[in-house]
Amino acid sequence: MPNFRYRGRGGRGDLLEGVFEAATADAVAAQLINSGITPVAIEEARERGDVLAQLGLLGRHRAPDLAELILLCRQMYTLMKAGVPITQAIQGLTRSTRNVVLAAALAEVRQTLESGRELSAALAQHPRLFSTLFVSTVRIGENTGRLDEAFLKLAEYLDRERDTRARIKSALRYPSFVLAAIAIAIGVINVVVIPQFAQIFARAKVELPWPTRIIVASSDFCVAWWPVMLCALVGAFAACRVWIRTDAGAWHWDRFKLRLPLVGGIVQRATLGRFARGFSMSLAAGVPLTQALSVMAQAVDNEFIGDRIRNIRTGVERGDTLTRSATAAGIFTPLVLQMFAVGEETGAVDELLGEVAGFYEREVDYDVKNLSQTIEPLLIAVLAALVLLFALGVFLPMWDLAGVKLAGGA
């Protein structure tokens, strides 16, 4: 089907632009009107010179991020608390949101609601935008008559999730830049700098020390095989991306991430904190234990830990206690298992799980704050070793050459 570029006005009169794939311009107009956008101009997108324009519009067609979902949940909480009918609330949000993908999804949700279906069922039709935990929490709010509180809990949960991700990314940003700079510098030195010195050493016909032989051999290999190495890296990256999308690949990749030095423990505690927070929220809303475990196995975004959570659910279904099943899973610390046991004895598993989530979140916060201090000495040591190797490899033969010249002059 052809692509059509449109310009339209949103509910607040702001100008919106984008590209839709449809059979005809009339179909595009109908879709825009259903999304609360008044079309101003619709024309078929031509291939000539349209690539840059479409690249400029990609941001408008991206899936909503956590910040946009948090804003949606808070707005829904406010509107539900004020007594606004749900279809009217969604219609207003459709017109006010700036994300075209989210606006189109909300328009379809409103149409589904008007056909007589529940909000959770309408949201479940868009799994790429609304996770299983999101839909389950909304369903719980519908069943208990506390839909406004469900959206408030979702907003708080997503806000914590965004904060944790932001802190981890912030802590890893500096080491990532340093490692990228080291890789680029090594590539430039191997391909450009070392071959020049290698020619000088070859003409001098002096015996090269082992550091020089190492860097010259490395440079010769990179110069001779860099096209093959580049193709191999690109092919390996593409193959890994395809493999990770399979069930077995995702399981092994997620387990590998938990075993990475320095950051693996942080990722594991952050994931377990996400599990405990969502599990506590589900139990507090009245979701059965096994159903809550099934939901959280899909919501933790880690196939390895999700598999362990499904094992916990299987143990509970067989009649074991939550504590024994969690112990058999092998992913929780003894302190957390003690909190599970106390929660089962007192009948306050949801409250104790909230404490477990807080425990993990505080640990993650502490580890993230100290991550840079832990990584920096390692980076300095790596840089020092590389600089020493290149310095010895270059200057030792230069000193030998200078000694030969001085002896010849004498």
Structural summary, described in words:
The relative contact order is 0.07. The model is unreliable at 47-59 (pLDDT under 50). Among the domains are: 3-61; 66-159, Receptor-associated Protein, CATH 1.20.81.30; 266-365, Type II secretion system (T2SS), domain F (Receptor-associated Protein), CATH 1.20.81.30. α3 (66-81) packs antiparallel against α4 (86-96), α10 crosses α13 and α14 (322-329) runs antiparallel to α15 (334-346). It is 76% helix and 5% strand. A hairpin with a 5-residue loop joins β1 and β2 (15-21). By secondary structure, it is mainly alpha-helical.
Overall radius of gyration: 29 Å
In total, how many beta strands? 3
Which percent bin holds the helix content? over 70%
Shape: flat
Mean pLDDT: 79
Amount of beta strand: 5-15%
CATH second-level architecture of one domain: Up-down Bundle
Topology-level CATH name of one domain = Receptor-associated Protein
Distance from N terminus to C terminus (CA atoms, Å) equals 84 Å
CATH superfamily of one domain: Type II secretion system (T2SS), domain F
CATH top-level class of one domain: Mainly Alpha
Helix count equals 16
* Class of secondary structure makeup: mainly alpha
Q: Spell out the helices and strands N to C.
A: EEHEHHHHHHHHHHHHHHH
Given as residue ranges, the uncertain stretches (5+ residues, pLDDT < 50) are: 47-59
Which strand order does the major sheet show?
2-1-3
Major β-sheet annotation: 3 strands, antiparallel
Q: In a nutshell, what does this entry contain?
A:
This protein has 16 helices and 3 strands. The chain is mainly alpha-helical and 410 residues long.
